[in-house]
Predict the 3D structure of the following.
Amino acid sequence: MVITQRRHSKIIPVAGGKGGVGKTEITAALGLRLGQLGYRVVMIDLDLGGSNLHSTLAIKNRNPGLGNYFSDRSLAFETLVSPTPYDNVFFVPGDVLVAGMPNLTFAQKKSLLKHVENLDADYVLLDLGSGASNNVVDFFLVSNSGLVVSSPHVGSILNAYSFLKNAAYRFLQRAFAKDKEITAYLRKRVRERIPGKPTRMTDLIDGMAEVNTEQAAKARRFVNLLQPSLVLNHVRSVDDLNIAESLRELVSKNVDIYLQNLGAVAFHDGLASTYRTTSPPVLAEPGGLFAAQIDRLAQKIVQSPEFPTLALDTNMYEDSYALTRIELQYDQANAQQTAPSDGAISESDAEEFLQVMAQQRKQIQELQGTVRMLTMRGPG
Ligand SMILES: Nc1ncnc2c1ncn2[C@@H]1O[C@H](COP(=O)(O)OP(=O)(O)O)[C@@H](O)[C@H]1O
Ligand SMILES: [Mg+2]
C-alpha cells in the first residue's frame, strides 16, 4: 500500500460490497465536483464486468478502455486517459468495448496500479465493482484513503462490514506473503473459522505473536494504516445514521479499524434512472440538496491536507458521525423551510411569504456556512 499523502496525486478507491448502493454515482458526482473546484481529476472505471461509470457521467464510451488494454498488449495505458466534456475531469473507461477479464492476475493488477500511481492528477478516483473478491479488495488497498459506500439497509451495512474484514485480512496476507510461517498461520486461522463466531483482528494478531512477536507488532502497525471512510447513501432520515454508528462499532471491535464518516447523501428522486443522456445532477442542479451534500464530501477531502485523516474541529462535536448528524439536521430543517405550502394564498400574501422564505433560506445558508467554517480547520 502507498500512503498517498506524500505523493502528487491522491488515489481514492470507492468500494462497498453491495451492488446498487451508489458507488458509481458517488464516484462520478465527487469527481465532477472536485473538477469544478479546480482540481485535476482522473476517474477510472475498474468495475470490470459491470462498467457503467461512463453512462453515469453521461458520456458515450467510444474510446478504448481497460478491457482493450488487457487484451491488447501493444496499447499504452496513457492512451486510455480521455478528456470529458467537464473541465479538469478525465476518464479511463472500463471494459465496455471489450468485455471480460474479470479475473486479473496479481501481476496484471500490479502493473496497472503502477500506471495509476503515475497519473498526472490531484485526485484519482477508482470506481470499483461490488463484492469482496480479491480483485476488488486489491484495488481498494492501493491506498489507505478508500471510501466505503453503503445504504442504511441492514444487508448493505453487513456487506460493508464483510468487505472491510476481507480487506484487512487480505492486507495482512499480502504484507506477509514472503513469510512462510505467518502465511501458514493465517491460512490455518481461516480454515479453523467457526461459523457465527467471528475472529477478532486483535485475537488474530495475538495468535501471530506466538509465531513471531516482531511480525505481530508489524501487523498491528499495518492494520492501523487502514483509514477507510464511510459514505452513507440513500439516506431518508437523520436516524439512518444510527446503523452507520453500529457499523463503526462492529468494525472497531472485530476488525480493529476506525471507520470514520465522510458524510451522508440523501435519496434523490432525480437519480433513479440508470442511463443518463443529460448532464449529471451534481452539475445540472447546482443549488440542489444532492449537489450540496456531494460538495461537503469534496470539501472534507480537499480541506484535509492529510486526507484520509480528516481535519475536523472536534471541539464542536464528538466525531465525524456527529458532524454528519448536524449536517443532516440542517438539511432536514432546510427542506421543511422550503417545502411548498398548500392552500390558496393571495398574491400579496404570496409575495410576503416568498420574502420571508428567501430570508429564512439566507439565514440557513449562513448557518450552514458557519457550520462548515467551524467544522473544518482550514489548510495550515
Ligand atoms: N442517493 C441516491 N438517490 C437515488 N438514487 C440513487 C442514489 N445513489 C445512487 N442512486 C441510483 O441507484 C442506482 C445504483 O447506483 P450505482 O451508483 O450504479 O450503484 P453501484 O455502483 O454501487 O452498483 C443508479 O440508478 C443510481 O442512479
Ligand atoms: Mg457501480
The CA atoms of residues 77 and 115 lie 7 Å apart. The chain has a mean pLDDT of 88. The chain has one domain: 4-326. The first strand starts at residue 10 and ends at 15.
